[in-house]
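REQUEST ID: PR-0412
SUBMITTED BY: lab tech R.K.
PRIORITY: routine
TASK: structure prediction, single protein chain
INPUT:
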Amino acid sequence: MMPRFWREIPSRYSLMGSRCGNCGKIWFPTRDMCPDCHRKSLGKMEPYRLKPEGTIVTYTVIHTAQKGFEAMAPYVMAVVELDDGVRVTSQVIDCEPEDVAIGKRVKAVLRRISEEGKEGTINYGYKFVLADQPY
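STATUS: complete
OUTPUT:
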């Protein structure tokens, strides 16, 4: 498995960000220094579990997928503003593209992201489903 993926496990599996102990601003992905008040991590940046619900800010429907994702097309990629105020980019799944709209509520779920290598290692991460639909 790629080292980058291992480093991202907390943010991918748990939607972990960081909160500045000085100014209180929340960041995603995690940061060692607050980009707002420029405090270094000396006990000031703390792990913060983001709320898994949010609202779609904008989205696009991918009709011509990149290599390895062709079978998923068309699929929806959205910018979601979580209830913490942090924005994340993710796929919206388990719905038709025409069901997605700006302002719709969504919730994060853990799903398969990709499969790598001849061993077939499966990488998981967060995606979103519409909050008003069962999953």
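NOTES: The two ends are 29 Å apart (CA to CA).
REVIEWED BY: pending
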